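Table S4 entry, L-ornithine N(5)-monooxygenase.
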Amino acid sequence: MSFDLVCVGFGVTALSLAITLHERGALDNTLFLESQPASKWNPCSSSAGGRMRTSFLNDLITSENPRSRFTFLKYLHATNRLALYANSSQIQPSREMFADYLRWCSASFQNNVNFGKRVTAIFPVREDQQPVRSWNVVFSDSVTGQQDSVTTKQVICAAGLQPFIPAPLSSIMDTSPDVVHATDCLQRISSTMRTTGGKCHFAIIGDGQTAADVFDHIHGIRGDHQVTWFTQDPVLRGTDDSPFIMDNTRKPSSKVGQALPLELRRRAIGDGLCTDSVSAIDRHLLMSIYEVQYAQSVKESDANKWKFQVKFQHKLVGAEKVANGKVRLSFQRPEFEEQLFGCNIFDLVIAATGYERTEYKKILAPLLGMLDGHQVTVNRDYQVNFRTGSCGVGCGLWLQGALEGEDVSFRSFNLLAC
């Protein structure tokens, strides 16, 4: 089969694209290939009741067309929640509500999505040494493994993120049910509490918002449990979400900033800004965690006896299974470079260590010889920079969802000459 556009994945980025194409009447000959068996929109893994960082106006379409039937306000009206939300006086919707908004939007595009189809590779279609005139997108059925392919002139690679597990934990994760990524931690926390009768010790590994969410969630559970949060950062850092920074990100005044994709503008504003830091934490949550620490210090001066501890500058270097299905963790601290601390035994270890963007590398592997350089780069419009003359008119490939990774960069000089 042949399409005008094939999009790899049906996550938030692809859903936003589907809405935009629908608004422009260009969705008819578009196909989305999604590896999941069905649409699945979940709130934040550890704090579904928490709120989004941005206003409801930053939904999937309002900035382009406030009159669209896919705005967040339209969703509230269609689900009889408009008055309820207005009475809450909250400009930031809850994560659970926004996840429901995404489910509501995605229901309109089921006919354009093939679920359970994992894209494995993209091959160029051309004759002899002529420019590429189309792409052959190869995918396999997630259940049967049967392979198939479609051709298209344009491809958008919006493959989802994959949970990242540090090497010490990944080495025992397959054989130990007591190690879990933050994405799937809610149910595991509950089951561990039931199994141990509430007398359990949790460990959180990681920096930033997700780790803080998990810590706050466990603290809010009534019981005789403990939690220790190990972070490599020397302090907990708050977000810098002032209107000045947000305005400069969306509408940069410099030519260099204007030439950058949105995701990379934050990095160009300046080093050290928490807007670009993966370890930044919402300020209200940061203050809540500090209050927890302060309240414990009033009752107990020895921080090592607190039920809810934050251990700074602890680098995870080892993990092993011990008796009764527990896990022992070893850490290294900067002041003791050669000494390991391995006396930490936990009932459940939660890796709040973010995600990695590696799926696109496998998909684009057959195209490496066409790249303009030694690594994947994109221009201001997210289009992959192939060698000049490699692609024919109207044929192109775009990469989205991987721009904030260290291995995907932006080639600014291509645009400064335009």
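The domain at 2-162+355-416 is CATH 3.50.50.60 (FAD/NAD(P)-binding domain).
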